[in-house]
Give the backbone structure.
Amino acid sequence: MSVGALNSVSTAALPADVRAAGPQATKDFKAALSFEQTLVSQLVKEMAPKEGPMGEGPYASTMQDTLTTALMGGQGLGLARQLYKEMQSS
């Protein structure tokens, strides 16, 4: 999954409080989502067995990306929300 995929996240898909806070808040939340996605992607790659369909072969990368997408679906892991809160408080 490319990090650029999050840049295409619709503003309507963001939490209401983020949308109401303005364009800078939207930008900050998307940056937090991008970081969370990158972290989850790296964790999936490290956790995947080195042997077998998840670790090698022509579809390994696709399966890892699909797992990352599934984990990030909905609310993600919640890390982006916490990062966003910290960004807003600083």
